[in-house]
C-alpha cells in the first residue's frame, strides 16, 4: 500500500510541477515581462519588475524542482507563496478563475509537508550520502 501511495504522490508532484513550469512559468520567463510586472505592481509590491521575475522564476524553476523532487520543500515553499499571491490577485474573480491558483497552492503546501517522496532526486541523493 505504501508504495502505491508514494507512486500516486509522485504522479501528482510531477504533473503539477511540470504544468506549473511549462504552462505558466515558461511563458512569463520567455515573454514580455512588462504586462506581468503591471499585475505585480497592482498587488502593491515595490520594484514590480524584480518581483515579477522572482514570481516567474518561482513558477518555472520551482515547478521543475518539484517535478524532479529536487530541493522539493524549499522549491514548493517559494512556488506556493507565488500561488498565494496569484490567489490574492484573483480574489475578486469568479471561482473558476482563482481555482487554478488554489489547486497549485494546495499541491505546493502538500509538497512542503510531504517532501519529494521515495521516487525523487532528493531521496536518491539521500541514499548516496
Automatic annotation (TrEMBL):
Keywords: Cell membrane, Membrane, Transmembrane, Transmembrane helix. This is DoxX family protein. The keyword rRNA-binding does not apply. Belongs to the DoxX family. One of its GO terms (cellular component) is plasma membrane. Its main location: membrane. It is a multi-pass membrane protein. InterPro entries: DoxX (IPR032808), DoxX-like_oxidoreductase (IPR051907). It comes from Corallococcus sicarius. It is found in: Cell membrane. The chain crosses the membrane at residues 6-29, 50-71, 101-121.
